[in-house]
Amino acid sequence: MAEGERILITGAGSGLGRALALRHAALGDRVVCADIEPARALDTAATIEAAGGHALALAVDVADPAGVEALRAQVETLWGGIDVLINNAGVSSAGSVADTGLDLWRWTLDINLMGVVHGCRSFLPGLLAAGRGRIVNIASFAALAGAPGIAPYAVAKAGVVALSESLRAELDGSGVTVSVACPSFFPTRLLENFRAPAEGYRHMAGKLMAASRTDADAVARIIVEQARAGRFLILPTPGEAGRWRLKRWLPALYHHLLMKRVRARRGR
Predict the structure, then answer these.
(1) 5: pLDDT strictly greater than 50
(2) What is the per-residue pLDDT across 180-214, written as a single tens digit (0 to 9) for each?
(3) Which of 4, 88, 143, 188 has the fewest Cβ atoms nearer than 10 Å?
(4) Between the CA atoms of 78, 88, 211 and 244, what dihedral angle is there, to the nearest 10 degrees?
(5) Which of 135, 138, 140, 143 shows the shortest CA–CA distance to 170?
(6) Cα gap 7→242, rounded to integer Å
(7) 1 contacts 28 by C-beta, under 8 angstroms
């Protein structure tokens, strides 16, 4: 059997990152499990190794560009580079423009947006030198939804979509492809680091996660399959593709229906 690809996943210690790591390992890929929590990275890597796969566990804080560059140097030394970069690490936050303090804005943007920028800047030269590879950026349907109450998170994830669009155009013809995944709510451990101006935001996020019709394994499977097929915009959670089409083609109707749904939830 041919040797699989070398995959680097940030935030691989839990949630979607872990599910992506296990999915790639099941396909025969070698996986670098990078996470800010070393014990979690080790647990994911150990699970892969116990199943007969190959993995490395490395620590990284994606908000620190020097740390991301050190991660790149480690991977170059140990594996000679990577074939696929998955910028997955992120934190969860909520709040309106009016009630969200600047510290929360900076925290969210530094990790969820600049963390992706740091990953792309550090690993892209190696992919370009090889003339092949993939970058998969994990955004969120929050980036596309135009929903209230999630301003810092939505803005950061919208930046990831815009970054991915720019990168896709810049890399056209280079052999390196770009995908951006925009899942909606599904159960993960993301609320462990949740920050918001008021506790009500956490309660609402928890309800939306609990009501999801999918899970991390199913989302990971779709992302891996569609990124390998070269799809740019990946909408891996049920219903979001239809909502995205409605917003693009009938934006006024989309906004009307969105706010009707929001008011109904507030009423409950």
Answers:
(1) yes
(2) 999 988 777 777 788 888 777 777 777 777 777 88
(3) 4
(4) -140
(5) 135
(6) 31
(7) yes
Please, what are the domains in the chain? 6-237 (3.40.50.720)
DSSP for 54-115, please give it.
EEEEEE--TT-HHHHHHHHHHHHHHHS--SEEEE-----B-B-TTT--HHHHHHHHHHHTHH
Scanning the structure block, which residue is given the tokens 């929590």?
A: 37
Tokens 């609402």 identify what position? 204
Q: Which residues are catalytic?
A: 153
Query: What's the mean per-residue pLDDT of the chain?
Result: 94
- Residue 162, SS3 per DSSP: helix
Closest to 33 (Cα-Cα) out of 58, 5, 62:
58
Residue 199: other Cβ atoms inside 10 A:
8
Give Cα separations from 85 to 115, 161, 242 (angstroms). Answer: 13, 16, 28
Output the six-digit token pair for 186: 């599904």
